[in-house]
Give the backbone structure.
Amino acid sequence: MIYRFRLKKENLKKYIEWLIENYEVWGPAKVHGETVFTILKSADEFVDERTLLGPKELLFPRKENIFSPDSDIKERVVIGVRSCDLRGYAMLDDIFLSGIYRDEKYEKRRKNTYFINFVCKEPCEYGFCTTFYGPRLKDHFYMQFMDLGEYYLVEAVDKKLIKDDLFEPADEKDLELAEKIEKEFYEKMKPLNIENLHKKLDWNNPLWKEFAERCISCGACNFACPTCFCFDVYDEGDERYREWDSCILEGFTRLAGGLNPRPTLDLRLRQRFLHKLKFHYENYGYYLCTGCGRCIEVCPVKIDIRDVIRSVGK
Amino acid sequence: MIPVKSRIIDMWNETPDTKSILIEDTIGKEPLPGQFYLLSVKGYGEIPVSVASWKEGLLFTIKKVGHVTGALHKMKRNDEIGIRGPYGKGFPIKENVTLIAGGIGIPPARAYIEYSLSRGMYKLQLLYGARSPRDLVYKDLLDEWKKYFDVQVTVDVGDENWKGHVGVVTTLFKYIKDKDSYFYLIGPTAMLKNAVIELQKMGVSPDKIYLSLERHMKCGIGICGHCNIGRYYVCKDGPVFRYSDIMDIPELFF
Amino acid sequence: MQIRTVRTVCPYCAVGCNVIVTSDGKRIISVVPSKRNDINYGSLCIKGWKGFDAVTSKERLKNPMKRTERGFVEISWEEAVDIVVKNLSEIKRKYGPDALAFIASARCTNEDNYLMQKLARQVFGTNNIDHCARLCHSPSVEGLISTFGRGAATTSIADLDNAELYFIIGTNITEHYPILGARIINNVMKGKKLIVADPRNIHIAKFATLHLRLLPGTDLALLNTMANVIVKKGLYDKKFIEERTENFDEYLKVIEYYDLERGSKITGVDPELIEKASVLYATSRSVILYSLGVTQHVQGVQTVQAIANLAMLTGNVGKPGTGVFPIRGQNNVQGAGDMGALCDFLPGYVRVDDENGRRKFEEAWNCKLPSKPGLSLPEMFWEAYKGNVKAMYIMGENPVISESELGIVEEALKKLEFLVVQDIFMTETAEFAHVVLPAKSFAEKLGTFTNTERRIQLIRPFLDPPGNALDDWKIFQLIARKMGYDWNYNSPEDIMAEISKLVPQYKGVTYDCLSENGVQWPVNESCKGTEILYTEKFARSNGKGRFMPAHWERPSDFPDEEYPFILTTGGIYYQYTTGTMTRKVHILEREAPSPFVEINPEDAKSLGIRDGELVTVKSRYGELDVRARISDSVPRGILFIPFHYREAPVNRIVNPHIDPKARTPEFKVTAVKIVKKVIQ
């Protein structure tokens, strides 16, 4: 059941103020000239802008002590996250909340975090989200804001964060306008062809060697990706840490004796792309990618995952 | 991902660089042959080890190869140790099985043999190869097993006292009794690669060959990504795989 | 548990990538690269993504310590300052101020370094202050000051995009300055040309239009030969030379000697290749990027001058998309030099023996300043070994691993009557100290770093300091005040206010004006910086650039029958200098956990050396056991060992001969032999 409201644009500030009064609120703000996710202390700080990286750390910290007792995670609202990031976090749920093991801390964080995602008005430079879920999600969101000009269209799965005096019910015209804007977006960003991509994508694609020529092994693609979840575990004294890892690093698969199934960079880059665009699909039925384009944007040598998708031909 | 506390009941040397460790089973879930546990050495880390036997505790036979195994080797009786498991998919239980074990691949073979014998299934054969006579493990058991089924042993390099077979484990294939049996292979990558080629030459079908694969492991539960091979995770979908399921994966052998 | 988000600068290399860090005071929550295009355009290398965690390690020094028979014992700051002041003043009284030696840090802020050299000069009366730039780019300082007038990069990182051709010599750019290397790769992918001059088959060479694999130590000959070709073909910029330079005739006399045949013979490079490279360089808008492969030689200064000569010859300096770019190594090595943490320069590169220049400081600091140049870094250890230097104060430096003086560093430190080490971790050097002082890391303090393109940038604190660690500059203030000097800085901003009055290049700098983008020196009163130097005139007193020609000489240590290989040292991507920080970061240590010696496959075959085998590398000065790594990135006859690892301190066996002017050791060329290790 999706509730549909609308919020006058000039009331956004009041709404965020109300959120800040009642919850810990994270959102994009300008810090020393750069827009990044941080805690908002006042509604004035909020900017409706796409940030370079999404707030993945709020669900899956970049480094955490596995042995430490569950810290007190209070309810928080993350407003201004982009749809591509949010849809990616839903994929993380399939990893951390199902299977042999339910990650308790992840579960607590997930339950206590309310994401309010904003639909992008314009395509970003490297994004290709229309290939997957588009700027406006149909599901896997909590509260979605879409800019209709004078109003935001608000789609919510429950009314917990609906402030009655600011929100009014949406009507047919709003929905039509939303459809129209969405269609225009799809015109500006034509979806790539991913039909049977997981079947066509080949172990022997020449792109692996081509990318390996210039890749500098920074790991940024993994760290910036909203769907990447690989991590390393190690002991430091009495503590055991889990931290973000990168499958393109040599030590990722190196065995204790020194042997390595992926000794060269091209094999590791191959693993990354095949995992996202083939293996994960074979296991879960969807691609481990939301088309956010962040991996391209943070790459120092602009290795482009879209080239991989385009390379499979008809 | 939190290990369960346990303690070392006993520890003894098998070879100059391999020790057997008997750990109290504080988890209480009976494993299946081919499965593994993650042993946690405080301050050093965790390692995945196949369980060799579970009669009066969990028995593991571990070779010293690195940082964590080095620390493990220095431990003593009654020391605290953490365990998690049993994880992974073990060997399918079949009537007619030929086990081929190389080097440190013998512990899971032992697990299967003990399981099979305890259920009255005697149609087994074991081909076991080690680097040298000093590196042979479970020597008493080998003699014991010879009473029930055919056991062939070889070493890569002999010594003055060795009177048995010399050569890599694939040189024992001429002694294989039943080409229609299931073949369970455990050992270093190079051995698996050659063994699979030889078996196929002999006409064995890929869906009767099972391999226990070895990969770098961290979480043991299929989420950290380190042990993946194609669409599979060695810790979750393996370590035992049917060869026909994985034979087309280019990075299978390295 | 207060969440803070700040813009700061990476503490590793001198590219100075901007990062926005969010933390709760104890742990780092997120690391986000800055999108600004002028430096790192939304990217970071793996040290930027993962390396900041080093400072949250439990091994951080928390309290001052003094050495006792029972080992190191924690003491109060009061006691520590007392001990330091007592000992240093005693030794100064007994043996004179030059028995003291101070080592500043290229990793600490401008404010820290400025106060340390002020402490050495004003409070203790000695010019014996130096820092690790002596081990790498001090030939650049000497070389570029003598030719252009300023010892720093002539252009900016963003300006590199305007060049048509990159001439990369003596630098494994993608390994050490990955983001800068990536920028070059991107430009080459867009069609720009690239000439790489390096004996090794380094990553960037894959993209080279021309790769000149010259013998180590022959760069000067190569540059002279290129100049010869350019002059012979008439491709030099007559107008530029006439209007903007002097001493061209002397230059012509020297380079005439280096015809293609001779140049090819010395360098081992095909003459056709040299010719092509020379023509390409002269006929394009070109930038020369170089670093330690050029400077860590006995002829380091001359080679830098040869680079500057080549740029002036072709008019490739002072315009957008051209110039000479010494790629500085450490996050603030440029700043430490600017701040005068050098034995022969006061802040702003005023020579200590320049009476007029010195007077400005004597007035500002109200004291007489020593006029004789002090001891350089290698000389400090020699003098300590001989017993002339009795006390040392070392900040943020680990000479036990990084110095080259024949392994006498440990002996020298043991002989000292008093040693103070101020650092963030217990380093190998700190083990020898009498007093260890815990300092704040880059993550916990406010201050400025100056990166390789002369950009002064603010670093901001985002973590709480461990225990009772203090800012380096605060520690110096405590000591100065105890010595009776009325230092009254309330914040690093106060220190910068003083710096901006005394260092003309930093004239209009305030923290407000630095806020987001920093500013490149020289800065004017309204805090406007300078992107490209020498657009109108050079910075020498007569405004002209000076050709400084020199003849090539063999490196001080050269292979012979007994020692047939050339050992060259350097760093690798995952580790950083002596590994004090990077070896504490799990992922970095996992990627590169151990030292190795890279050997060419054919050499390995002829010596019967297998990959991973333990071998002994012997030089005339010492020997080292290390595992072999067979790689075709080194040509035949050359070995490479990274210097990060205390298990294999390669700097003990390298060539300690120093460049007479800049006093930099010839790390890059040591004659060695390699033998299989015999294990009993």
